[in-house]
Amino acid sequence: MIRIFLLGLALAIYAKGANAAAAALEPAEIVQETSEKILKILNKDAENLRNNPQEAQRLVDEVFLPVIDVKAFSKLTLSHNWSKASSEQRKRFIKEFKGMLMRTYTKYLVDYAGVKVKIVPKKAAKSDPKRRVVYTEIAQPGKPPLPVDYSFWFNDGKWKAYNVTVDGLSLVHLFRTEFNREVSDTGIDALIDRLAKTNLEEKKQ
């Protein structure tokens, strides 16, 4: 599920980096206009990226971080434990949570080659004008279309993503369930330490 989430973010973010006018576009327009561009890059350079982890990491750094509201994503994921965490714990969690997302994306980057993204028009209910949901279907060879909904919010003049729902399952909810259980069992410092340890071990490989 996280691989599909990161794919969608890559599609959205490429417009941010490649087109200064993207900030004025709605999230659905950003995804629509850039999906073919980013997938073309992946289809062309998949083998090179597979054999060059540093190049894959560079692409992640350039296309992943600018479109993610990592703080909001982290806050939603920790839920009530966010308010209980100290300022230092919040900073550490954001850093390691971001690291987890980045290493996962780098690891599975080339798996995105060959997929197709279709925007699914839906009439949105009246809600917060600073929030948008982009409804899409991810077409993978030999598999039925997978519904994926991306949640964006407008902050500091930019649209940023903070959640994804894949076939009815929210990524924030899944992480929240896992992390809250872990915090309840061993504490927030233990959770952060585990993420940090895993991130460090992945870097050494």
Q: Which H/E pattern describes the elements?
A: HHHHHHEEEEEHH
Strand content: 15-25%
Detail the poorly predicted runs: 15-22
Shape designation:
globular
In what order do the strands lie side by side in the largest sheet?
1-2-3-4-5
**Average pLDDT for all residues:** 80
Based on secondary structure, the structural category is: alpha+beta
**Number of continuous helical runs:** 8
Terminal Cα separation, in Å?
Answer: 23 Å
Q: What is the strand tally?
A: 5
Cα-atom radius of gyration: 17 Å
Q: What multimeric state do the chains show?
A: single chain
Characterize the largest beta sheet: strand count, sense, and whether it forms a barrel: 5 strands, antiparallel
Helix content: 55-70%
Please characterize this protein's 3D structure:
This protein has 8 helices and 5 strands; from the N terminus they run H-H-H-H-H-H-E-E-E-E-E-H-H. By secondary structure, the protein is of the alpha+beta class. It has helices at 2-18, 27-51, 53-63, 70-78, 80-84, 87-108, 171-186, 188-204, and strands at residues 116-119, 131-139, 146-155, 158-166, 169-170. Helix 1 (2-18) crosses helix 6. The radius of gyration is 17 Å and the shape is globular.
List keywords for this structure.
alpha+beta, five-stranded antiparallel β-sheet, 5 strands, globular, 8 helices, 205 residues, 17% strand
Detail the topology: elements first, then pairings:
Blueprint: H1 2-18, H2 27-51, H3 53-63, H4 70-78, H5 80-84, H6 87-108, E1 116-119, E2 131-139, E3 146-155, E4 158-166, E5 169-170, H7 171-186, H8 188-204
Antiparallel strand pairs: 1-2, 2-3, 3-4, 4-5
